[in-house]
Amino acid sequence: MKMLPGMTVINTCDFNQTKAATFAIAKHFGPVYLRFGRPKVPNFTPVDNEFIIGKAVCLKEGSDVSIFATGHLVWKALEAIKILESNGINAEIINIHTIKPLDNEAILASVTKTRCVVTAEEHMMNGGLGDSIAQLLVREMPLPMEMVAVNDRFGQSGKPEELMIKYGLEATNIVEAALKVISRK
User: Is 27 among the domain residues?
Assistant: First the structure.
């Protein structure tokens, strides 16, 4: 959907954010695609948070690696930071709820500090969040980057939890990507 000119693409992380995004979309002029998945995740965003289309949300500041997550992988990224912290790694977690328009300013501010990037999404690697961030970084600030996403495979039917494991969309996959990208700094 992000390939369509003028299309706004939103991918929310929990019920509260989806509700807030729906109200923001109702006030927005132009076409909007609101994407959300089936995996069950805790409702962890504040109920009264204002949803601003195109503005990323920093969930945790860090200095070692920037993790940009969208949709249900935001929760997985929050789980991953617990593992990373136990290994002495201070990860920054940014919720990129709007894929288009992308919050270039927030992304560049984060990677200026950390000097390496992991993206996490329950989407195809080609054409997704990681692809958009890679395009931004190659133009503005080339840095080591890893993507946690579905890598050029057809989707299958199944229970959401089983599919997340099958396609490598778990907290452990985010941890592996973070360790790999940090080693390439």
Answer: no
The token pair at 34 is: 């609101």
CATH number of the domain at 86, please: 3.40.50.920
pLDDT by residue (tens digit) across 162-176?
A: 989 899 999 999 999
Helix (H, G, I), strand (E, B) or coil at 11: strand
User: How far, in Å, are 5, 26, 95, 108, 123 from residue 60 at the CA level?
Assistant: 32, 29, 10, 16, 23
DSSP for 154-178? ----S-HHHHHHHTT-SHHHHHHHH
Fill in the amino acid letter for 133: I
SS3 of 52-114: the string is CCCCCEEEECCCCEEEEECCCHHHHHHHHHHHHHHCCCCEEEEECCEEECCCHHHHHHHHHHH
Structural domain contains residue 64: yes
pTM for this structure? 0.96
> How many other C-beta atoms are found inside a 10 Å radius of the C-beta of residue 159?
10
